[in-house]
Automatic annotation (TrEMBL):
Protein name per UniProt: Thiol-disulfide isomerase or thioredoxin
Pfam families given in the database record: Redoxin
GO BP, one annotated term: cytochrome complex assembly
Limits of the Thioredoxin domain: 41-183
UniProt keyword terms in alphabetical order: Cytochrome c-type biogenesis, Isomerase, Redox-active center, Signal
Species, as recorded: Gemmobacter aquatilis
Signal sequence, renumbered to the chain: 1-23
Cytoplasm keyword on record: no
Keyword Signal: yes
Length: 184
């Protein structure tokens, strides 16, 4: 068993040493504290190209956010932890959002537009990109089995982090991790 651990450590060291993008993951990993201890950071992994819908029923996709860091939050109107978490996502967008970073919400499953709009209004969040995955296709393809789940995508659109459960995304710890990931 010990040789397997040594090989895994060697592979990890070689991967991070040879891949500058992965070095950002190492820097971010070192900053994980508080709710961010639940954040799993990893080498970039492609996200399936599955269509979503906007609140106006127009076809949308996560591909439209390529070129910036994206925090994608999978949630539902019936999810109590999602209700607690949503204001911190709105605050994070307000503090870090811009040309290089965006928070995107994806209502997973059967969430009617009126219920989504009511949920967001009650949470005091009206400025987040709100998409829908009404049949759960993207959620299934990405292995989302519970809610909330938040996924971090790099500018190429690949997943580099995942946090299962709710978190305070506007905390100093969360902003530190995200800032380290986004560092050039």
């Amino acid at each position: 068993m010990l040789p397997v651990i040594r090989l895994a450590a060697l592979y990890t060291a070689l991967f991070f040493g040879a891949n500058p993008a992965a070095a950002d993951v190492m820097a971010a990993d070192a900053l994980r504290a508080g709710d961010m201890k639940k954040l799993n950071l990893a080498a970039p992994d492609a996200v399936p190209a599955v269509g979503l819908l906007g609140l106006d029923d127009a076809p949308r996709s996560l591909d439209e956010f390529k070129g910036k860091w994206v925090l994608v939050n999978f949630w539902a109107t019936w999810c109590a932890p999602c209700r607690v978490e949503m204001p911190s996502l709105g605050a994070l967008q307000h503090s870090l959002g811009g040309p290089g970073f965006e928070v995107v919400t994806v209502a997973a499953g059967r969430n009617g537009v009126p219920q989504i709009e009511k949920f967001m209004a009650e949470a005091g969040v009206t400025h987040l990109a709100a998409l829908r995955d009404p049949k759960g296709a993207l959620s299934r393809e990405m292995g989302i089995v519970g809610l909330p789940v938040t996924v971090i995508l790099n500018p190429e659109g690949a997943e580099v982090g995942r946090l299962i459960g709710d978190a305070d995304w506007n905390s100093a710890e969360a902003r530190a991790v995200l800032t380290a990931l986004m560092a050039p």
